[in-house]
Amino acid sequence: xxxxxxAPSVRPSKSSRGDLQWxxxxxxxxxIVFLAxxxxxxxxxxxxxxxxxxxxxxxxxxxxxxxVSGVERADVAVALADLPAFxxxxxILADVLVPLLWTAxxxxxATASMMALxxxxxxxxxDVLLGWLVAVAAVAALAPGALRHMGTNGVLAQRGWSGxxxxxxxxxxxxxxxxxxxxxxxxxxRSGRSLAEEHAGTx
Length: 203
Hints:
By secondary structure, the protein is mostly helical. The protein has helices at residues 16-48, 85-117, 124-159, 173-198, and strands spanning 50-57, 73-79, 164-166. The chain has a domain at 16-48 and 83-157 and 170-198. It has four helices and three strands. Strands 2-1-3 form a three-stranded antiparallel β-sheet. It comes from Pseudoclavibacter endophyticus.
């Protein structure tokens, strides 16, 4: 009886226009504060033909450069033109994907917020959007770091820096918590939408 009924919608409140404006403003501020500096740094390095790799120096081996005394980790700028094409491509992709993917995550989050404010919280389109948000967030959290790690290994091998190794992944629990939380949100949302469709028209 209820299979063909449309998904219920929530009527936006009178203040929805103001909420939408605040959502857009908040998204813009988040981009300026968090992503614009990353984008600017990426453009600067690519325009200079360099990429920054993070390494850990071995005190008993060969140092790749003048490291600060007592500091094991160092960020070293390498010229892309001096690297093999495959290694340079890995580093370029790592540089480009960080601002690109996190901008996409921010845009999807803002879109989901606006859809919810417009009363489309239980629509199938919102369900699909959440799926895309989880997928893009997972790729953004893991792919650039993996590409940079492989690229850094290539740099060390090409330069013969036997006394250094790529910096280990740090705060790996952050993307795990992020993806897990978003996945739980999808499960809860789909369960709520199914329940709403089953009880549509009964009140």
